Amino acid sequence: MHTVKDWKHWLKTxxxxxxxxxxxxxxxxxxxxxxxxxxxxxxxxKTISSTGxxxxxxxxxxxxxVVSLTVQKEGSPAHNSEFQINVQARVASYGEDGxxxxxxxxxxxxxxxxxxxxxxxxxxxxxxxxxFVFRMVRAILFLYRLCPSEEMxxxxxxxxxxxxxxxxxxxxxxxxxxxxxxxxxxxxxxxxDPQIVESILKEGSWGNDDLTSRLWAGLLASSCSxxxxxxxNKGFVELLAxxxxxxxxxxxxxxxxxxxxxWVQRGGVPVTVLLTPEEMxxxxxxxxxxxxxxxxxxxxxxxxxxxxxxFSSYAPKESFDLTPTSLGVQLFKACRGHLLAQSGVxx
Length: 347
Prior knowledge:
Layout: H1 4-12, E1 30-35, E2 40-48, E3 52-56, E4 66-73, E5 84-94, E6 98-103, H2 112-121, H3 128-146, H4 153-156, H5 164-181, H6 194-204, H7 210-222, H8 234-241, H9 245-257, E7 274-275, H10 277-284, H11 289-301, E8 320-321, H12 326-334, H13 338-343
Antiparallel strand pairs: 1-2, 1-4, 2-3, 3-6, 4-5, 5-6, 7-8
């Protein structure tokens, strides 16, 4: 059984070519899905190695053609990405019942990684290691596509620098980002600046709650474009990195409740977002209203909400003004992904 440390060892060998021919084996319970999303076709993988596989199928693609497939565990639901990996393979030969195909891996990716993937893929889906392996490889492939292969810093974030807790958090960010961008027409062509990606993964891996993980994923999604030189989210990375989960909940709630362009006065009357103490407790999950007031003060100092909390009175707190600033709304939209922002969902 391979541990997270074992995988870190293999990840550190990325970029070292494999000279000898990879041994073939007969996997149990592995299939490859291809074709359209509405009517996919499924073929069993008869033999596999770290460099290719033989797929039992009636399809006869042209030799040399590159085909996109989804390798998955047999019986895995089509919508369950936990045990699926999207790969490309080049047709190499024909057989009586199928075709031989070679993996088209990103330049510099160690082919040994695939052999260990397949070894683990044969184990029961209930095994935590099996899920970890599939998620790790899927995350690596996505990062390789986002960033040029010659700039490896983003991949090396996965190695010794991160412990298991942070590695799993980082993978969650990457895979959530992939889901967010999957419906984008130019999804396969989208790229991101390696330095921005590295910063998001390093800072986001410290998170310990679902909300901040999703915010980091949204920020990574909005950092992707057809122009990989985009660094417009650099300032947002710094803001989110300094924000606690409680502060993030407060800002998100204020932005969700704020009408479109809430920072602009309408008819001379400022549009405000006021919460009762009971609502604040429900949102933050804490009965310590002084702590929530301090979190609001932090958000105000960093220019994310309009008003600071009034600490001059010891009277019971009657309301909390969460009206976001223009910067706060921009950060919120960036952390929800540029696709949602552009579609008007966040407006």
